[in-house]
Amino acid sequence: MLYSPTTKRIMKNTISNCVAMIRPSSFAFNIETAGNNAFQNKLEHFTPQQIQDIALIEFNTMVLMLQAKGIKVVVFNDSGSDTPDSIFPNNWFSTFTNEILLYPMYSANRRKERKKTVFQKISNDLRKPVNDKLAKLEKADEILEGTGSLVCDYTSKTAYAALSPRTTSKALDAFEELTGFTTVRFESHGPDKNLMYHTNVMMTMADTYVILGADTIKESDKADVISHLEKLGKDVISLSNDQVYNHFAGNMLQLKNKKGEKFLVMSKEAHSCLTAEQLDQIQNKHSNEIIAVPIHMIEKIGGGSARCMMAEIFFD
């Protein structure tokens, strides 16, 4: 039996030193998700094999760059032929509670990414049971795509959530009931003026700061979101809409190594657009070293960036 009703806990470590990544076997433009992901692009001048080959090079390079800084990376090889987005595992499972939570996914081919071989291995390694209660909400079209939908401050057990077809209110209600987290809900709009498909495209949570595309937030929600973040003691580093929409600057992840050294992982594209002031805040004020990974093909085709490629693994 997968379901267990005991997910409430307080984490000791709120910055992970380990991530799971899925090496793609059929990376491609996902037509099933393109309707509400304005960040996806078709690149007609590349063949499907060229797209897969380049994405694989980018993936392997990113793994090596993380490992070089002492961050543990657990790599699983995708075996699916109809899983073009398998490279983004953070959407379908998480480990930040005392269970492995499985999440309800929007598109049919993304639901195929939930491989038992993956979550059972992680469950065994962490000695945590697997809870599929949320995933079953798919049957009622209630969706919550993991840490794409949820940008969490683990210390306060607060999750920020931009409402969209991939982040529904009833699914958030169920998440709150299951985990004891409080959710801060708002509307955020993407480059096509429709609802932002994932919260983690416009918000990155770190221990002492948050990187926020505040101007993407609906005006009537903006002050409330910023106020919540400031009450948590977060230093708000603001992004422009151009940085969010055109450079994936909101899609980052804070990690640490076993020495306790802190890093902010982002794409090379995101790094290229940051201002001197923003870089100073991240690197000097908050003592985070930047790891900027070259993942241009993955970003263009997949509509996701560095944070989406990493599912945090928490061992306590």
CATH superfamily: L-arginine/glycine Amidinotransferase, Chain A
**How many strands, which pairing sense, and closed or not: the largest β-sheet?**
3 strands, mixed
Task: Find the structural class using helix and strand composition.
Answer: alpha/beta
Weakly predicted, low-confidence segments: 1-6
Radius of gyration: 18 Å
Mean pLDDT: 95
CATH architecture: 5-stranded Propeller
Your description of this structure?
The protein has a single domain, classed as L-arginine/glycine Amidinotransferase, Chain A (5-stranded Propeller). The chain is built from ten helices and 15 strands. The chain has helices spanning 48-68, 108-111, 116-126, 146-149, 169-179, 219-231, 241-247, 268-273, 276-285, 296-302, and strands at residues 18-23, 72-77, 93-94, 100-102, 130-131, 151-153, 158-162, 182-186, 203-205, 209-212, 235-238, 253-256, 262-267, 289-293, 311-312. The strands form five sheets. A three-stranded mixed β-sheet has the order 2-1-15, with helices on one face. It has a three-stranded mixed β-sheet with strand order 3-4-5. β1, α1 and β2 (72-77) form a beta-alpha-beta unit. The protein is globular.
